[in-house]
Amino acid sequence: MEANETTVNYFRLMKLTMTEGTKAIQKAVVSRLPGRQTLHMILRQKEDKIRSLSKGQRSVISNRQLAVLYPANTNCDLSSIDMTLWCVLARNLVTLPRGVSINWGDDDHPPLPGQEEWYHDIIRIRLTRNTLFHSRQPQLDKDTFNDLWNYISGPLRRLNEDVDLDSYRNSEYDRSAAREFEIQVKEQVFQEMNDVLKAGLADRSKLYIVIIVIAILITLLIAGTVVVVYFQLHKETSCGYGLRGEIVDPIGILSVMPREGWKAEKPNPNMKNRPLPVEFVEFTHTSDVTRCSDCCAQIYNIQYLHMKTRGWDDIGFHYLIDSSGVVYEGRAIDKAPAAVWGWNKKIISIALLGNYMHENPSIDTLSAFNTLLQYLKSKNYARYNFTLYGMCDISYNETDSPGRNLYNIVQSNKAKEEYENFRHHVSTVIELIFSVSEFHNMSM
């Protein structure tokens, strides 16, 4: 069975990050060692310092990594040093410029645009690897893939001018290689914790404690699995249970999940207000899985991408709608969205979870969408005669969003609504003419 586009995207970016990312960091470290010395020379000179990094409660290097750096009776093989270990060597062997302080492990504050020193680029490469690791599935939609590819391309070119990005972007999918890359990432993230734990098991009493802890964790895992299965069988979204409420509007009822229900991160407090009502409403699709088993987690991942990778103030959309018709609160309605450049101050942005290029939106989704539009008018968030646009109508970049099928359905409903309004106005005018005529006849 051939891999789909999202799986191939994930593989290509993972291959680029793990292969060329490691090479780029290696080149950055080796070329900046003091006194133009080789890494082998530095390791011999600073062996006591390097070994001290594996001791104490705040150890930053594992016994396995020490064995890589100091193999018995020979020099270390540079090709056996992984990305995690190169990052440790970068922050302990290379001297930063005076006045520069870097928090190498802070994923919450990535380098800002314009910060393009070698140590900033190492952090960007490491952050891309960690983003792939934290992905719930080994899949990347087209937009996310392009964002992450562009994010890591600059650092790779600056650290290694010989890198051939095109060969990776067009590489064939290899299932066994993909699995190997996933294993490498997991090993790099977990190896320090595992090795430190093994090194601490000096006697049987500690071993007994570990066995008890493992037994407790297995029990909790089984209990958690039972809970997850139960909620998946009883409802589509398993997040924010008990927090979902309803908004009753004259036109219908909206089932609404507040921000705390999907565990939203706090937005940038410096975001400016914008006047309401707005003249336009824009709708798009998220171009990912249409029926999500955990929509709250999916929306949280969208916010993480918008804030951590793209550097936005909050999730870009005001509202999101899943396939069961639940409406999720996004960015505050009085804040401009991050949706379409040049239009953000004058639109309300609504995202429908899913990919509607080839699938049709559910009846629940369309019903919630239409009710939400009426709600925006009734609350005076949007003008009574607002104009509804798909992203493809107003985007300066060519895009398929909101998907051909969704766009056609919405356009068809708009045409029906406009026809009904026209027919109502015509009927009103005709009734008025007959009333005037009748009144005139009676007066004669």
Average pLDDT metric: 83
The tally of helices reads 14
Low-pLDDT sequence parts: 198-203, 232-238, 439-444
The H/E string reads HHHHHHHHHHEEEHEEEHEHH
Strand order of the largest sheet: 1-2-5-4-6-3-7
* Major sheet description: 7 strands, mixed
Extended strand count? 7
Radius of gyration: 28 Å
Task: Characterize the overall form.
Answer: elongated
In percent terms, what proportion of residues is strand?
5-15%
Helix content: 40-55%
Q: Structural class, please?
A: alpha/beta
Question: How far apart, in Å, are the first and last alpha carbons?
Answer: 85 Å
**Oligomeric form:** single chain
Describe the structure.
- The chain is 51% helix and 9% strand.
- The protein is of the alpha/beta class.
- The longest helix is centred in the C-terminal third of the chain and has 40 residues, at 404-443.
- Helix 1 (5-30) packs antiparallel against helix 6, helix 1 (5-30) runs parallel beside helix 7 and helix 6 packs antiparallel against helix 7.
- It starts with a helix and ends with a helix.
- It has a 7-stranded mixed β-sheet.
- It has helices at 5-30, 39-45, 47-52, 63-69, 83-93, 118-133, 142-159, 165-169, 175-200, 204-234, 295-309, 363-378, 391-394, 404-443, and strands at 245-249, 252-257, 278-285, 319-321, 326-329, 347-352, 382-390.
